[in-house]
Write a structure and sequence with these properties.
mainly alpha; 2 domains; two-stranded antiparallel sheet; about 75% helix
């Protein structure tokens, strides 16, 4: 299974979790629109269809979301808006990951984004538990602290240095390695907070019990959905060398 197929499966699972949790709150989403979008996106990517096709698909699916709120009593206006939100997050971000998966710099992007994010998460947890005193967003995530975030950010800088000096990405310069790792992991921490804000709104701890002890697919993908596109943008803006 290649990256696009994995992203497709993960996106469908996230769409299901999204619709299921809102459904438990009495807000019925049109999950089929989200499934249609990610299935069409992976088809466009695998067929190497570029241009405005992706934008047209996204706009068409937004129309479908809103139309369901007009004509389907089960969905209603609240469900239509929540479906539109799910289309943007997480589905559109997964679509971006699918596009990145067939780019020329997919390996560099994933290496910097994933390693820096995973290391950052681990050190942020350690730093927060050991030194945490000041919360970042207590109304969203009372356990996330400024000290933990700083430990995570510092670890991402070290990750960039290590990636460069062990020649894991020989085409990427030192400055680009370090800067991309730092920016991507920082956006990963923001992604974690963004998902926490949705969970806080829904009054849940995890989106599902898909992965025992770790929550659902949404809970696992939250940081990477922000860090992977960010790393790709950084590598394009700064260049590899």
């Amino acid at each position: 299974m290649n990256l696009d197929e994995k992203a497709f499966v993960a996106a469908c699972l996230c769409a299901y979790e999204w619709a299921h949790e809102f459904g438990r709150k009495g807000i019925a989403c049109a999950a089929w629109v989200m499934y249609l979008f990610v299935a069409s996106e992976v088809a466009l990517v695998l067929l190497h269809v570029d241009g405005a096709s992706h934008q047209i698909l996204f706009i068409g699916c937004i129309y479908c979301c809103l139309i369901t709120g007009i004509f389907l009593k089960d969905v209603s206006s609240r469900g239509a808006l929540c479906t539109t939100a799910g289309l943007a997050y997480p589905c559109a971000l997964f679509a971006a990951v699918m596009k990145i998966g067939v780019s020329e710099i997919w390996f560099e992007t994933l290496t910097l984004a994933c390693l820096s994010t995973w290391v950052c998460d681990s050190f942020a947890m350690f730093g927060g538990q050991r030194f945490g005193k000041h919360t970042v967003a207590p109304q969203i995530s009372p356990n996330k602290t400024v000290e933990g975030c700083l430990w995570g950010a510092a670890s991402s800088l070290a990750t960039g240095l290590i990636i460069y000096y062990i020649k894991l990405l020989p085409e990427v310069s030192l400055a680009v390695c370090v800067l991309t790792a730092f920016v991507a992991s920082t956006m990963g921490q923001i992604g974690d907070l963004a998902e926490s804000s949705v969970k806080r709104m829904l009054g849940i701890k995890d989106f599902s019990n898909l992965i025992p002890g770790h929550g659902g697919m949404m809970d696992r993908a939250d940081s990477l959905l922000f860090s992977i596109p960010t790393a790709y943008l950084c590598l394009n803006i700064f260049g590899l060398a």
